User: Fold these one by one.
Assistant:
Number 1:
Amino acid sequence: MNKHRNNHISPAFYLMVVPVAALFFLLHTVPFLKGIFYSFTNWKGYGSWEFIGFKNFLQFFKDPSIKQAYGFTFQFALSATVLVNVLSLALACGLNGKIRGKNLLKALYFLPYMLGTLIIGFVFNFIFGNIIPGFGKTAGIPGLSVNILGTSKAWLGVLFVTVWQSMAFNTMIYLSGLQTVDKDIYDAASVDGAVGLQRFIKITFPLIAPFFTINMVLSVKSFLMAFDQIMAMTGGGPGTATTTISMLIYKRGFDGGQFAYQSANAVILFLVVASISVFQLKILEKREAKVN
Amino acid sequence: MKEKEKTNWLLTILLSVIAVFVILGPLYITVVIALKSPSDMEHILALPTSLHFENFSMAWKLTDYPRKFLNTFFITSINLVFTILTNSMAAYAIIRNKDKSRFFNLMYYYFISAMFIPFNVIMLPLVKQASAFHLDNIYGITLIYIIFGLPMNTFLYSGYIKSLPVALEEAAKIDGADTFQTFWSIIFPLLKPMSATVAILSFMWTWNDFLMPLVLLSDASQQTLQLAQYVFKGQFSTQYNLAFASYLMVLLPVLAVYVFCQKWIIAGVTSGSVKA
C-alpha cells in the first residue's frame, strides 16, 4: 500500500459522519450553547429579554431554593453512592461465592435494572404509604406507623428506592470484576496467611479497582441527576425538602417563568457534574496505576 | 481440593431469602394488588380472594393502552434499528480515519466530550428548539434519541473497531468493493457483539425513559407508556387496583423480554460498561 492511498479518504467516510454530526450539532450542541447564552439574559421563556451579565449567577448565592436544591442533591448523591457501592460490593462477593443456583440469583438481583424508575417509585409509594404504616401500627413502632414520605425523613424513602434499583447494575459490574480475579492468587494469599477481610482489602480490592472506578463515576453522575424517582414519590416535597437540581430546572424553568435563570442553574450543574467526573477519573486512575 | 467444591449452603440460603423478600416482594405486591377488588384490600399482602381481571381491561381503556403501547413500540424499535445502523457507521468512519485526518479526529473528541453533557442540562433550550422544528411528537423524539446516542455509542464501538484488522478491508477494496459495501458486508457483521450491547442499552433507555417524553410529548395522542402512568396518577388517585394493573401492563413487556434473554442482557450491559 503506497502512502498516497493511505492518506486518501474516501468521500463515503464523510457521508457516514457528516449528516449525523450535523444533526447532532443542531439538536444537541446548539441547545447547549443557547442555554449558556440565555443564562446571561433575563428571558422568562416568552416575551422580550435583555442581557444582564452575571446577575443570574450572583443571584444564586442569595436564593434559598438553589441552596436547598444543591444541598439536598449533594447529600442524596453522596449517601446513595456510598450505600450502593458498599452494598453492591458485598452482594457481588456473595454471588461470587460457592453457591447453588448462581445464574438464577444473578438474574433476580439484576431484575430492578430492567424496570422503569417511575413505576418502581409508584409501587414503593404504595408500600411506604399503605403497607409499612399498617405494619408499624400493629407492631407498635411509632417510627414506622406513618408514611415516611410525608415526614422530614422523606429523603430516606427516596434513598431506599434509589439504592434498591441502582444496586442491580453496580453489583453486576463488581461481579464481572471479581470473576477476572485468578483463584490461584487466593491460594498464594492463604499460604501467606491473608484471609477474610484482610485478603479482600489487600488483594481482591486492588485487583477490581478499575471496576470500582466505573461504578463511582457512573453512580455519582446519575445520582446528581436524580429526577424520575422523586417525581414519582414526593414530587419534591414535603415542601421543597426533596427537590433536586434537575427538578428545580424542570419546574421553575418551564412553568415558573425562570427560563434564563434556570438555564444558568443548568450551566452550573453541567460544570459541577463534568468537573466531578473528570476529577474522579483522574484520581481513581492514578490510584489504580499506583496499585498496578 | 474436595473442600473447594463444597457448596456454601448458608450463603446460598441467605442470598435466596434476601432476593425473595427484597427483589420479588415489591413485584408480588404489584401483581396481587392488580388482581384484587377494592373491597379485598383489608389484608393487603394476602392473595386475592377472587381474581379481578377487569382491572386490566379498565386500565387498558382509561389510559388508552393500545395507543401508548404503539407509540412506545414505534419509538423503541425505530430507534433501535437506526441507532445501530447510523451510529456504528459513524463510529467506523471516525475510528478508521481519526489518525490520518484532522476532521475525523475532531469528530472523535467532539462526540466523546459531549458525553459529559447530561440531558437535564440541555432540556430547557432543547424543548424550544424541538417545538421550532416541530419535533415535539413521536417522530421527532425518535430522531432525537437516535442522534443523542452518538457520543456513548461512538465510545462503545471505538474500542471494538480498533481491534478489527485493517487487512480485511484492504482485501475487500482490492476485490473492488467500495467503502459502503466493505462496511456492510465485512465490518457490520463483525460488530455484532457490540451492536447487541448497543441494542440492549438503546431499548432500555427508550422504553423506560420518562424525562424526555415528559418535556417533549405534551399531546395525549403522542404519549408513551411511562409518561401515561404519570399523567394518569391523578385519575387513578386511590384506585390502587386499577393503577397497579396499569403499571403491570407497562412492566410485562420488559419482564417477558428479560425472562427469555436475561443472560444475554446481563452480559451485554456489563460488557458495554466495562469496555467503556
Number 2:
Amino acid sequence: MNKILNTKDQHPVISSKDLSISYELHRERTKLIALKNISLDVKKGEFVVLVGPSGCGKTSFINAVAGLVEPESGVINVNGKPVKGPGPDRAMVFQDYALMPWKTVESNIRIPFEFQNLGISIEDQNKRIKDCINLVDLNGFEKSFPYELSGGMKQRVGIARALVTHPTILLADEPFAAIDAMTREAMQAELERIVNQSNQTVIFITHSIDEAITLADRVVVISYRPGQIKEIVNINLPRPRFEQEIKLLPEYSKLREHIWRLVKDEAFRTTKGD
Amino acid sequence: MRLSGLQKVIKMEENNQNTERLVYTGWTFKEVWGYSRTTVVTILNLSIFFILWEIWTSSGGVNPLFLPEASNMFHELWKGLTTSAPPGAVFSGSIRDHLFHSFSNLMIGLGIACVIGIPSGLLMGGNKYIETILSPYVWAMASLPRIALVPLFILFLGFTMKMQITIIVISAVFPIIINAWAGVKTTEKSLLAAAKVFGANRRQLYLNVVMPYTLPFIISGIQQGIGRGLIGVIIAELFGGSKGLGYLIQRSADTFNSALMYAVLLLLVVMSLTLIQLTRWLEAYVAPWRKVEML
C-alpha cells in the first residue's frame, strides 16, 4: 500500500502528457476523438485500473502504451523514453485471449521468445516457460490446444505468455470479462499475488467497479467521448484483497458508490446522441 | 483414459494399493454398434436403394434406355475398370483409359490453379493496391458461368488437352483465390495485435500468424475447386475431345449404352466424394480447432 506514497525519488514508469488519440472515420469524413489530453503518471509497481463506458478510449490508451497505436498529439513515455512501438518491457493480456489456435499451450507461451531475440538461451526459455506454467497452475496441459481448454484456463495461458519475458509493465484489456464470476475472483487473487511477487506495473481495464476496487491502487475514471480523465480515485484498502471480504468493509461501499456515480453519468451519456 | 472394446482400465486393489490395469474384456454389442453405426446404416441404406432400383428396372416397368438395371450398370463399371482397350483401337470403351485421362487432367488443372490461386489470393489479402486492382477481374470471372468461355477456348486452343486443362484451371482457380483472400482478410485482429505486442515484425506477422490462419481457408478453397474443376473436366470433354469421362458419357449416349453412361456417372460421384473427403481429412488434420468450432 505504501509503495505509492514513498516514491519520491522514482521516475514514473509510464508517463503520458496531453495524450490525444483519434481515428479517421472515412465514411463520415470526420475524426473520432478517442482520447483527449490525457496526462497520467504511473509509478513502478503501481496497479492502475481504468474504468469508463464502452467506447471511451480505455483500450486506445493501453494500445498507445503498448505501441500499437500512435498518438495524434502529446507524448507517451515508458521508462523515460517515448514509445516507438512494442517492446519486451511491456506485455499484454487480451479480452479474447488471442491465443494462436494452431499452437499448443507451451508454444503459445513461447511466442514472445519466438518473435524477438531477447538473448535468452533455449534452456532458460524452457525453464521460464515451465515456471510460468507452474505459476498459472496449468501443469499437465502443456501439450493441449487452446480449443481444448475452458475460458479461465485460456486466459491463464494468456497471462503466462505475458509474464514469460519478465516484462516490467503488464497491460490488461478486460482480461476477465468473458470469464464466469467464480473463476474471475480466483483469477483476480492470483493476478494480485503474481504482480506483487514480481513488483510489476499494471494498467488494467475493466467494466466491473468491484473488480476495479479489488485490484487497484488507483482507479482512473474516463469520460465518454472525448475520453478524458474525469477523476482518479485512490484505493487504500489493505492487501491481499478478496472481493467478497473487502465488500464487507465500510470504506468499500463508499468507494463503490463514488465510482459508480462517476461512471453512471458517463454511461448515460453514451445512450444519448450516439 | 480412453476405453476400447478390447481393453479396459480396471481399478483394483493389489497388496493394499490402488492400481490400474488393462484387462481384456471383449467387445460388447453396444460398443460394436457405437463404433460402426454410421457405416452399417449407410451400407444398408445404399443396398436397399440399389436393390429397389434393380427390382423396379428388371420388372420391365421402365425403358432400359432411360434407366438400366443396376446390375448391368455395376457390370459395365467392373468391366470398364478391369479391361483396357486393345492397342490401336480407334475408340476405347474402357472406363479405365478415360478415367486416367480425366483424372490426370483434373490433377494438372488443380495443381496449376493452386500455383496461381494461392499466391494471388494471399497477395490480394495482404496488399490493398493489388486487391483494388485485381478484385474486379476476380469477381467478374468468378461470377461468369465458366461454360460460356468454352467456345472461346476452343477457338483459341482447338480440341486439345491444353484447352481442357485451361477450362479446369479457369473453373478451379477462383474459389481458391477468393478463399485465400478471405482468409487473410479475416485473420483475427486480436491475434495480429498479440503478435505485434510480442515483437513480431511484418514478415513474422505474415508467416507465423496470417499463413497458419489462412491455411484451412485455402484447403476449403481447394475443396470447392475440386467440385468446380470436375465440372470443368466434364464440360471440356463434352464440348470437344476424343477422350475422357465426359466424352465417354457423350459416346455412350450416342450408342444407346445407358448402362455404361450410368456407370460413368456413378464413378464421377464416387471420385468427387473421395477427393472432397480427402480434403476434409486434411483440413481436420491441419486445423482441428475449426472442427470444434463448427460443431
